[in-house]
Amino acid sequence: MSKRRIIGFIVAGAATVTTITASLLKKRAEKTTYTARVTSIRQREIGFYEKYIKRGLDVACATAAIIIFSPIYIGIALLVKIKLGSPVLFTQERPGKIGADGKESVFRMYKFRSMTDQRDENGDLLPDELRLGRFGKWLRSSSLDELPEAFNILNGTMSVIGPRPQLVNDMVFMTDEQRMRHTAKPGLSGLAQVNGRNGISWEEKFYWDLEYIKKVSLWDDIRIILQTVNKAVVKQEGISEDGKATAEDFGDYLLKTEKISQTVYVQKQNRAKEIMEIANI
User: Distance from the CA of 57 to the CA of which of 106, 154, 221, 272 falls in 20 to 30 A?
Assistant: First the structure.
């Protein structure tokens, strides 16, 4: 194949990716503030790098990743379609960066689907352990299921590096101090991920998240990226906790360890449902 033809294919591929990206940006996930559902938390001082440089690097990295790994995107999408059916993408609302009012926003996060829709005789979904097969476990252990999050980075709801976005169900159980993690844009990877991922306790996760926001710098972001590649690609460390298909919810952990009562647990779960209803309007 001639160099001219190769260059033509590259340019055509880049144009296609650009078109898709533009379409996604136009359909940017709407952010819904938790009005009157949570208390405001204080803002923190944002440094020069985080305020003026980090976003540009996010866009450059995400665009390059989509172009370079476009064959992998297509291949994984086909495998998911064949092995798990439609939809190929799994979407879920997650708490995002706080706004000027000190309250979090909700954004829609994209992943490749890794579970089946198997249900019991009552029509309820089976436990995660039964719906996450060998293919799904491989997707998660290799972190390939997270590739679509590059589009979240492009539309501004995520960053390459930052505290990993947890569930709304987790957010309602956080203290105001723990919620300070949301003063930074959620990331594809972060300090907690390179220091144990889901193999560490919730307290340790929050510790590393809060350590990250103390000083957001270019050097630290580069270091975390290199450590993430080593863990996810070289060592292929999975996201699951020992003996579990998925990570334990924060509220379930607090209830199990008797750090909250059943009454508080139910109240906060109901609040999470209210927030999700608002986010999906």
Answer: 106
Residues of the chain with confidence (pLDDT) below 50: 6-7, 9-11, 14-15, 18, 21-22, 24-33, 35-36, 239-243
The rounded distance, in Å, linking the Cα atoms of 77 and 59 is 23
pLDDT tens by residue, 59-100? 999 999 999 999 999 999 999 999 998 899 999 899 999 988
Tokens of 251: 């509220």
% residues pLDDT > 90 (the chain):
54
In sequence order, which ranges of 43-96 are alpha helices (DSSP H)? 48, 54-68, 70-84
Stated pTM of the model: 0.83
The string over 16-53, giving b where at least 16 C-beta atoms fall within 10 Å of a residue's C-beta and e elsewhere, is ebeeebeeeeeeebebbbbeeebeebeeeeeeebbeee
| Nearest residue to 227 (alpha-carbon basis) of 184, 198, 193, 199 | 193
